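Exercise 7. Given the encoded structure of a 280-residue chain, write a plausible sequence.
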């Protein structure tokens, strides 16, 4: 999809750059594949804010997306490509030959009328899904499982992808967009192609109200707060916030490493995304 820029006929349209969604389906989603979505304003089950700067926003219907792709060796036809307010990628409605319908994440270059299929060893075409055990090395993939049968978790956002670069025992080596090189089991499923809507990051929303429609509230810097509200707060006049930038709860931030070295998946990372890329 191309970007669409607007003439500055109003202050909110000055600099406005949005995705051109004219080719997407203009009707409502399939009712059987939707469910209600309750807003929580970033609060958990005890009512405490666990994610700041969330709240409000337009009402949404949740589209049930098939991340598992476990209906094997049954071909499906792409009925339409749709907008999904719950994610940055577009979604595709597919109808299997036995009549069942489902939504999948739409990859780039997937068009209405195309056939997609999931199986142990299928063609390397955008939208097809297979385990790494049946996939040729070098394939560009998205919607990658981290545990067999759990459903895709890696490379689901707009424009993201990973590359299958090698096999190591029972594991597949994949290189992520961030530069990280990691292992997943060869039984894990992945879909072929890169995720749709790669221009999503090039949008300019033009006004604060558009962010509020998305449920994003204003963010206030710690250095302009009072000492009771943030470790960077207080001081006479303008201050930089001290030598060691921290979060409101005292954790190092702005570049400091906070990942837990003992996390179970850490041993599956062959090369960190922070590793120097020179000479590699």
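Solution.
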């Amino acid at each position: 999809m191309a970007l669409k820029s607007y003439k500055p006929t109003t202050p909110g349209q000055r600099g406005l750059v949005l995705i051109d969604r004219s080719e997407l389906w203009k009707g409502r989603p399939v009712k059987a594949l939707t469910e209600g979505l309750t807003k929580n304003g970033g609060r958990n089950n005890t009512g405490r804010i666990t994610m700041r700067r969330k709240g409000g926003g337009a009402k949404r219907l949740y589209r049930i997306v098939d991340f598992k792709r476990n209906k094997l060796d049954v071909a499906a036809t792409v009925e339409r490509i749709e907008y999904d307010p719950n994610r940055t990628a577009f979604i595709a409605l597919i109808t299997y030959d036995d009549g069942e319908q489902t939504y999948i994440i739409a990859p780039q270059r997937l068009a209405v009328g195309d056939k997609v299929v999931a199986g142990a060893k299928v063609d390397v075409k955008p939208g097809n899904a297979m385990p790494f055990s049946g996939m040729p090395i070098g394939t560009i993939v998205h919607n990658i499982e981290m545990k067999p049968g759990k459903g895709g978790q890696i490379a689901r956002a707009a424009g993201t992808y990973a590359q299958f670069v090698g096999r190591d025992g029972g594991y597949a080596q994949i290189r992520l967009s961030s530069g990280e090189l990691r292992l997943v089991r060869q039984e894990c499923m992945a879909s072929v192609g890169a995720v749709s809507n790669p221009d999503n990051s090039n949008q300019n929303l033009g006004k604060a109200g558009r962010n509020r429609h998305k449920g994003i509230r204003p963010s206030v810097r710690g250095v302009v707060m009072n000492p009771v509200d943030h470790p960077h707060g207080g001081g006479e006049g303008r201050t930089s916030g001290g030598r060691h930038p921290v979060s409101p709860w005292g954790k190092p931030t702005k570049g400091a490493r906070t990942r837990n070295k003992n996390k179970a998946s850490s041993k599956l990372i062959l090369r960190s995304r922070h590793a120097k890329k020179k000479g590699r």
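Remark. The first strand starts at residue 3 and ends at 5. Students should compare their own answers with the one above.
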